[in-house]
Specification:
Blueprint lengths: L9 E4 L6 H10 L1 H11 L1 E5 L6 H11 L15 E3 L2 E3 L9 E4 L7 E12 L3 E2 L2 E5 L9 H10 L1 E7 L7 H5 L4 H11 L1 E6 L2 E8 L2 E3 L6 E3 L13 H11 L5 E5 L7 H13 L1 E2 L8 E5 L3 E5 L2 E2 L3 E11 L6
Parallel strand pairs: 1-2
Antiparallel strand pairs: 2-16, 3-4, 4-19, 5-17, 6-16, 6-19, 7-18, 8-15, 8-17, 9-11, 9-14, 10-11, 12-13
Helix pairs in contact: 1-3
Pfam families: TauD
Organism: Streptomyces kanamyceticus
Cofactor: Fe(2+)
Length: 318
């Protein structure tokens, strides 16, 4: 059995700071304690910081993470503010975003995520979290064993008008650059005119490099066709056939069936927790321990994210 999931995030009221520079110095002075709380709880939310711009958020981020992490193999629309700061997502407000670990499909991924709230929404819009150590205890042993042994496979079709173009996803217009990246990252590629298909095989569970705990770490359910609303799935199948923008498979190539995806999504719902955003909130999230998602919302919502301290998958294998 894995440790019982904590109710993340741990909310920590900060001292009153007159300036962002004062707040940054306070973070530096308490950084060891903050990381100890992050390791214990998975996420720490600092409440009441005085940042009001993306540049000020970046200043605080730099006191928390050792080095920035790139957003690779992009999958969702985000607006860039510069200095490695993005909107958390530009997915429409009406849509709920399921729990996922950032870049779980890549060979290198951020160990830490830092979120900052400039403007909280009127209603909804929580960035909810889920303890991925607890997922395997909610699933049949045989299913967990299969994913542990086989891993999982992701197939992406870059249609452009359904999701991002390959140019957006890989931040280049040069096919040779895409092929170079694919060779380095273990992706197979197939070109169909201007449409690109990539296939990659990854481990489905990894070990936390600090705690040693095992985490469910993949996008198997997140990108399954069985996680889509029925109307959207039928629309995409009518337009794309079997070449959906995203498809997930067992490591041996078998499709992951609807019943399995429903089990996975149900398990994710059982570990989900959330805290309402307030202006000046800064949340540090352990991307290996916790998955994150977003509730639909109304009103203006400006929540920023930065990724840091990248780690290689090879350093986290079971």
């Amino acid at each position: 059995m894995h440790p019982a999931p904590h109710q993340a995030p741990f909310v920590l009221g900060t001292e009153r700071h007159g300036t962002v520079a004062d707040a940054a110095d306070w973070i530096t002075a308490h950084l060891d304690d903050l990381h100890a709380l992050r390791l214990e709880h998975g996420a720490v939310l600092l409440r009441g910081l005085p940042f009001t711009t993306a540049d000020e958020f970046a200043l605080l981020r730099d006191r928390i993470v050792g080095r920035p992490a790139d957003y690779v193999e992009k999958a969702t629309p985000r607006s860039a503010y510069g200095k490695g700061v993005f909107t958390a997502t530009d997915v429409p407000a009406r849509r709920r975003i399921r729990l996922h670990n950032e870049n779980s499909y890549a060979l290198s991924f951020p160990r830490l995520l830092v979120f900052g709230c400039l403007t909280p929404p009127t209603t909804g819009g929580e960035t909810f979290l889920g303890d991925m150590r607890a997922i395997t205890d909610l699933l049949p042993d045989g299913l967990v064993g299969r994913f542990a042994d086989e891993g999982w496979t992701l197939v992406r079709n870059y249609w452009g008008y359904y999701g991002l173009t390959w140019q957006e996803a890989f931040a280049t217009d040069d096919r040779d650059e895409v092929e170079k990246y694919a060779a380095e990252q273990g992706l197979t590629t197939s070109w169909h005119g201007d449409r690109l298909t990539t296939t990659q095989h990854r481990s489905a569970l990894i070990r936390h490099p600090e705690s040693g705990d095992t985490s469910w770490f993949n996008h198997v359910a997140f990108w399954s066709e069985w996680s889509l609303q029925d109307e959207l799935r039928e629309l995409l199948r009518g337009e794309c056939g079997d070449d959906l923008p995203f498809r997930t498979f067992h490591g041996n190539g078998d499709p992951v069936d609807r019943a399995t995806i429903e089990l996975l999504n149900d398990a994710h719902e059982k570990v989900r927790t959330a805290e309402r955003w307030q202006r000046g909130d800064l949340m540090v999230v352990d991307n290996i321990r916790l998955a994150h998602g977003r509730e639909p919302f109304k009103g203006e919502r400006e929540v920023l994210v930065a990724m840091g301290d990248p780690i290689d998958r090879a350093d986290c294998e079971l």
